[in-house]
Amino acid sequence: MSSSTTAPAQSPIADAAPLSLCAREPLVPADRLVAEMVPPPRFDSVRFETYIPDANQPSQTEAVRVLSGFAAGLGGAHASGSGKRRWFAKKQAAPTGPRGVYLDGGYGVGKTHLLASLWHATPAAPEQKAFGTFVELTNLVGALGFQQTVRTLGEHRLLCIDEFELDDPGDTVLVSSLLGKLVDAGVALAATSNTLPGKLGEGRFASADFLREIQGLSAHFRPLRIDGDDYRHRGLPEAPAPFSDEQVTKAAYATQGASLDDFPHLLDHLARVHPSRYGALTDDLDAVCLTDVQPVPDQSTALRLVVLADRLYDREIPVLASGLPFDQLFSEEMLNGGYRKKYFRAISRLTALARDAKGLVHA
């Protein structure tokens, strides 16, 4: 599913020079990391009713039906037997049936829309529900420590994990251990991940991968396949060609709330900011303007750029750029390697944001 984006307001001459991402080094307290575990702004208003299934993909209609029922089943008391977990109380019997659902599908079929809709539809107060990406969850463990994360999230009724990553064995074991503790505490789980490029059409490849990696937790998840084409490219024009440095700079000065950075310098700056702070890096921005976009030089830099692309996409911040088009950011070796699903996602999302930014440039 797609949402329309209105370009930021322009004026002939901005009140001040553009902002700079490279000038920002935000500090993010741990309590903010917890408080921000809600669906991102792009998905504030999504609901099951606003998801428009592809008429040619019956699995999409079925997904809405199953998830609506799953949400309704999470009403009432906490699964541990009370609204709050009593850590020293006698452990009560776990509820019967899967307490989790795994959305298995390719890029742009609306998995995040459905996951956010599940969060919104679950009859519980916002502070009893958590929503975050796999990376944000591992960052939370790093900030709070494992046991404090278990205590904090163990009070929740639902944890939604978007973009569950299977390419880092250490992180996968960490999160699997965390989820095991949360299941014991009565927390319901929902997760998404992407089928790898080159594996699309091989049925439940991602589902089998996911269930194998989480090992003992597999019985707690019901796999739910969602087929379809990437909506970001379905019936939409091709990604706009990059603009000139002059056009990008002029647009940055004419757009309130825009940042302006040289792309190679921004990549260097990302190495000095922890990825858990990339969301704060974009605070109060209405547009990101980049000059001299070049191929990403190495894998570590590429993975940092993927996280920034996710945060920009979550916040619906248009990206205007000069240099190479975004589909040339990553080398063929990267696109064929173990992290290729992340790179394809970043290309898809940056392309969508580039379309949103077209209105910033005037002839």
What does this structure look like?
The protein is an alpha/beta fold. The chain has helices at residues 30-35, 58-72, 111-121, 134-144, 146-153, 169-184, 205-213, 245-254, 263-270, 278-281, 299-314, 332-335, 340-356; strands at 100-105, 129-133, 158-162, 188-194, 221-226, 258-262, 287-293, 319-323. The strands form 2 sheets. The protein has a 5-stranded parallel β-sheet, sandwiched between helices. Helix 11 (299-314) crosses helix 13 (340-356).
Please render the helix and strand layout as text.
Blueprint: H1 30-35, H2 58-72, E1 100-105, H3 111-121, E2 129-133, H4 134-144, H5 146-153, E3 158-162, H6 169-184, E4 188-194, H7 205-213, E5 221-226, H8 245-254, E6 258-262, H9 263-270, H10 278-281, E7 287-293, H11 299-314, E8 319-323, H12 332-335, H13 340-356
Parallel strand pairs: 1-4, 1-5, 2-3, 3-4, 6-7, 7-8
Q: Please write the string of helix (H) and strand (E) elements.
A: HHEHEHHEHEHEHEHHEHEHH
Q: Low-confidence runs (pLDDT<50, min 5 residues)?
A: 81-95, 195-205
Helix content: 25-40%
Gyration radius, in Å: 21 Å
**Beginning-to-end CA distance, first to last residue:** 31 Å
Alpha-beta content class: alpha/beta
Give the overall shape. Answer: globular
| Major beta sheet summary | 5 strands, parallel
What is the number of E strands? 8
The chain-level mean pLDDT equals 83
Short description:
The chain has 13 helices and 8 strands. It is α/β, with parallel strands linked by helices and 363 residues long.
Essential attributes:
363 residues; alpha/beta; 3-stranded parallel sheet; 8 strands
